[in-house]
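Follow-up to my earlier ticket, as requested here are the two runs.
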Amino acid sequence: MSNAFKDMLAADRAIFLNVDEFGEQHTVEGKTIEAVLDDDIQNDSKYGEDIGLAAADLALYARDEDLPPRRPAGEALNINGKEYTIVSWRTDYGMAVVYLSHQISG
């Protein structure tokens, strides 16, 4: 991948996560980061069902380096003081997308 393309991706990521644009301050595992939380992932389209994420309630978009080490599906992730279950976690070009479901306690 060329340096120019990497620079463009980094610039796009910075704009997307900027708190003056789309990003917000969120606390993930006790660390405050700039991220985007999308709780409308299944209402926009059938995207969640198309990729087998019917159980996902929320998508977290953040810089990979701002998050704790990647965790497998089924493990917990604390966001803003609430525990969520990881449905899937992928990283593309430094941007992590973590699909989450609300944990139900008995």
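Run two:
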Amino acid sequence: RIACGRLEYDTQLGNFELDGLPLRLTAFEWRVLSTLMLRKDAVVERGELLERVYEFNADVDSNSLEVIVGRLRRKIGAEMIETVRGRGYCLASGSS
């Protein structure tokens, strides 16, 4: 299990919990959040997240990642995902 503030990720089962309750995610949200969680406190490049989310599909909307991140922020708290301009995103643990 990986903890990041109020968020926990069971890497074996692939489940997320927020404040001890199961967190419901879409497949795209799960891919983004699991990538950020595995590299918490580090900047994950935007291109790497796009690769993880869409695998090898090159025909993606340039705004789609921002939409996914926006949905995740509403689910886990906006303060948890930091935008690093020109680079990507960082899951800030605060007090893990």
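The only thing I checked on run two: The mean pLDDT is 88. Let me know what else you need.
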